[in-house]
Design goal:
Number of strands: 31
Distance between the termini: 28 Å
Strand content: 35-45%
Radius of gyration: 28 Å
Length: 472
Amino acid sequence: MAIKRYKADADNTIVNAYESNLRTRATGSNMGQADVSEIYSIYGRESTSSAELSRVLTKFDIASIESDRTAGTIPAKDSVSFYLRLFNAETSKTVPRNFTLVAQAISKSWTEGDGLDLENYKDSGVSNWISASSGVAWDSAGGDYHALPAYSQSFSTGLEDLEIDVTTLVEEWIDDSKSNYGIGIRLTSSEESALTSYYTKRFFARGTQYFFKKPVIEARWNSSLQDDRGDFYMSSSLAPAADNLNTLYLYNYVRGRLTNIPAVGTGEIYVDLYETLGGDALTQTIATPATGGYVSTGIYSCSVCLTGTYSSLRDVWHTGGVQYFTGTISTQTVAATAVSTGNNRYITKIKNLKNKYFSEEEARFNVYVRSKNWSPTIYTVASSEIENTIIPSASFRVYRVLDGYNAIPHGTGSDLQTILSYDVSGNYFNLDMSLLEPGYEYGIKLAFYDSQRQSWLEQDQKFLFRVEDYEY
């Protein structure tokens, strides 16, 4: 999988609301330690023309993102997306509908503060509506913000979470073209000045007790490796061009660790394909080598289309006269049929599932899949293992068993962050257990893409495990 979450390390709600006496504005109040934050615009409470506003400031540890990128934990620029996520906090107060929130980078350093009171504004301190930090005022009351980049999200019911793609801004923070002072979130200028009230949108703040509700910047990317060594098809006029392309991978393990091949590094590698004629007899199937390249540390790939009737192939990976690996490939052919096959149903199993995982580990799950309608003959059962079906488009989600909360939902959109990898052994995926709150039981559900229905179908089987903290 490819999700990494970075929690907020400072947040605050700043207001210019009136205190309960409706005479004094609480512009010096601070809510930096409150467990929720809120955004509102209140019109006409003190007089027929009075307006009261609330805005949210939140900041994240970008140094951790930079460190993870340097270590290769997250990909380089243009290969990863970053999302700002704040989670709705239910409230007994009136919730606004049909409004828009704007998010912009804060342009001045600010202090979180120690205040808690969101109701009576009795906790004074900085930051607040007037001051960014002790002795330092905002240039403009209510906070200072960069004009660009600017982001927005519309809300219809007012109960939605906030989820905005802020990739451009995060990359500016990473490359130091913009200083990281966090993000300010507020109603649009027209809504803040409207002759109507927008009561009151609340989000959980970083001080909340709820593990999954803390504000985060979430990194998402597609880390799946789709290795066609076990699903290699010869080119056919029956198939579209994309389905005639096969991708092969080379994994260079040295003492159990993926390691770059010294002579190749992050450069090109070449692959010759040979037909196996029996014994050691080989015939080259392509006149010139296929050119492969670097994927990530110790992993290289190449993509080929191959015409002919070869039933078995050998792939030889090399550079500069040095051969690194020789593999075998069993090929398949595309065939039309006069009978509709209907909808495929599958039996799935996670072969290496454990009862318990620790919160600091990243676990790999190996998935076994076979057709539900598979009917083996006596000879098949006695002479061979049951074939593991490779699913080219598969996704997973993780839910908390106690209440069904979707801790990691299916990510099958543009970022493809929960897509399963596959190789000659079948489908698999990795799961970073630090994304899950320890002390609870979780379930995994798989979904396969049905090309006939052009939709994802979640499979019936569920796979349960617990996450625990290390005791020492």
